[in-house]
Design goal:
5 helices, mainly alpha
């Protein structure tokens, strides 16, 4: 590529093995994830991820609010103050919070708060929010 002075045709030709390798690596990653999920080796994590997914709208909006308050005024104004590696800690902290909080919420309620509002607006009547006592919360159940 250097000897051709990054000619577009030469660059496209030399990038073919790279692109094929990218697809192969993506398929390998997907395969490992599928094997872990199907093998039930990481049931503790997949159950938590399912709960986070069931509350996706509430989690998305709450994350947006928390990050806005963390990075901008009237919050902590941390925008531009952290190094890239420090941002990973902020994101990881909120992910861990969601992975812990979502299953706890769904033990008592059928939906996240915003999912309940959305569903109630869709059907034009308030939907049942609380779970009946004695019925275990199934994060895979679609209500």
């Amino acid at each position: 590529m250097i000897t051709s002075n990054y000619d577009i045709v030469a660059t496209m030709f030399w990038n073919v093995p790279y692109e094929i390798g990218r697809v192969a690596v993506a398929l390998a990653h997907a395969s490992v994830i599928i094997l872990l999920v199907k093998g039930a080796r990481m049931r503790w994590l997949t159950d938590r991820l399912a709960a986070v997914g069931q509350m996706a709208f509430s989690n998305y909006i709450s994350h947006s609010i928390v990050y806005a308050l963390f990075f901008y005024a009237p919050g902590l104004r941390m925008f531009g103050q952290l190094q890239r590696y420090q941002l990973y800690y902020v994101v990881l902290g909120l992910w861990i919070f969601s992975l812990v909080w979502s299953p706890i919420w769904l033990r008592s309620f059928r939906f996240g708060p915003l999912e309940w509002c959305w569903r109630s607006l869709t059907y034009w009547k308030p939907q049942p929010m609380r779970r009946r006592s004695g019925i275990p919360a199934d994060v895979y159940a679609v209500s």
